[in-house]
UniProtKB/TrEMBL annotation:
Domain of life: Archaea
UniProt-listed PANTHER family: COBALT-PRECORRIN-6B C(15)-METHYLTRANSFERASE (DECARBOXYLATING) (PTHR43182), COBALT-PRECORRIN-7 C(5)-METHYLTRANSFERASE (PTHR43182:SF1)
Molecular function per GO: protein methyltransferase activity
Originating species: Candidatus Methanobinarius endosymbioticus
Name of this protein: Tetrapyrrole methylase domain-containing protein
GO biological process, alphabetically ordered: cobalamin biosynthetic process; methylation
Organismal lineage: Archaea, Methanobacteriati, Methanobacteriota, Methanomada group, Methanobacteria
Amino acid sequence: MAKLFIMGIGPGSKEYLTQIAIKAVKDDDITIGSLKAIEIFDDVKKTIVLNIKDLQEKLELVVDLNIEGNNVSVLSTGDPGFSGVLKTIMKINKNKNFDENNIEVMPGISSLQLAAAKNRISWDEANIMTFHGRENISDILKVINNGLPTIALPSKSVKDMVEFLLNNGVNEKRKVTICYMCFMIIYPDDE
């Protein structure tokens, strides 16, 4: 049975790749991911570039290619199970009535792990929130003043989230780790 690998590839640099991710891409038939994600691998055969505009369509193609017998690797920066592609692929797979045992999830180093490590935050003593794909980010206001460190994955830009927090009375000295900062560590020249 062909496999559909959903791989967390870390924050997006070779230094954070796991050996299992490198091997899976080397051995697969087709690799799909963002251009930046694909470019960090050396041994890539056939590729499909994924972007936010056609995400659903490309992920449906991935499942179809796997059903046809291709070993496919889907590259997910961060963690595929936390605001990642895992949920979407599982829904598509279920809608096509295909056996989910063909799907193998390989976590990498998540953006949350990197954000917590860089800021010396213990996970079990932090508010961890994701706003990916959400317009309403007001849930953060419920926990922002509980005294615990807060790590957030923003839905849009860091600037929008900071403005929202300040406009809603959050003290400007309150530390909030927004995971976009992890990408700035890996890609310091990105805007």
